Amino acid sequence: MIKNGTRLASQVCDTQVIVVRSADTLDDLRCGGAPMVEIGVQRSG
After folding, report:
1. Confidence category of residue 1, pLDDT binned at 50, 70, 90
2. Which of 45, 1, 42, 4 is closest to 24 using CA atoms?
């Protein structure tokens, strides 16, 4: 589950987001077809 306040970054471009309001069922957020990762996590690309 992605929590409110989580900072995410795209693995394929420079896009970054902060989750303001998340649904209880939100487990995956994607950008450019790849799952977004928490800031500070090593990007795969």
Report:
1. confident
2. 1
For the chain, first and last CA: distance in Å?
23
Please state whether the predicted TM-score (pTM) of the whole model is above 0.85: no
Integer Cα distance of 5 and 38 in angstroms? 11
- Secondary structure of the chain in HEC code, one letter for each residue: CCCCCCEEECCCCCCEEECCCCCCCCCCCEECCEECEECCCCCCC
Rounded CA gap, 14 and 3, in Å? 21
Calculate mean pLDDT across residues 24-32.
Answer: 90
